[in-house]
User: Fold these one by one.
Assistant:
Number 1:
Amino acid sequence: MAETPLAAGRRIVAAIILAGAMAPAIAAVPLIIAPNWAALTPQKQEILAPLAGEWNQLESWRKQKWLEIADRYPRLTPEEQQRVQRRMKAWVKLTPEERRAARAQYKKLQQGSPEQRETLKQKWSEYQTLPEEEKERLKQSAARSTANKPSPRPGVGHPAVKPTVVPLPTLGATPQPPGSVISPAPSAPLTPATPPAPAQ
């Protein structure tokens, strides 16, 4: 017997309500757990070979990103495949701090205008055409300029704090109450003190 449109509509509404009720429980369960290195296909192991040493320590979402790249890899041109391999090898050599900086820089670039991204893409293309010796020279030059960069001046961006000057008492001076100002010693040569004139 064929289902009536009213019954089909009720079934769809019930499914939507059930899905809504289960949403918090589903959201709490990770949707995809990326496999360990041994569980990857030989083809994916070959593509992702530069990451083999650290694959099992990567977070699931990072593994998933790399697996997506491995899925697209066979459809890439040979030049694009070489570029992916170079980037993986370079990524593995980075320290955790350098990786964080690279991710932050990538996010910053993604927020830039289309013109800025196009300019950067053009510069990157020009860089890729350089001979390896020139690339190495540029890397060393950038490393030197970063090393020679002056450290930030202390207090920049912060309100100026006036140093507290605590005058030292002079010999033979009478103690002053806190908060009072002690005048500096005279610059004339020291002579025996004369008693002050009597107050009138």
Note: Residues 145 and 151 are 12 Å apart (CA to CA).
Number 2:
Amino acid sequence: MPKFIIPVTYMMYGKYEIEAPTLVDALDMVFNASGIAAVEMGLPDNAEYLDYSLSANEEDIAEANPTLTNEDRDDIEIFLEEMRRAWSDE
């Protein structure tokens, strides 16, 4: 049976509890100029998946699966559009 790579993105929601001298210092610890503080801290302990935030796009799927045919690409486009439509109706 063939295997396919499906790159996805999704959003999470959580809260960091930060000890800092000021609110601005706490914000800087999460959103510092290098952009790596939150990555280094990992996900908050109370992080939760945001419903219906799972997504994928044709370009990423096609790039991850270079042997796809044009018909496969059309099928991806149709599937993703139907998925988005179904989720927006809920």
Note: The chain has four helices and two strands.
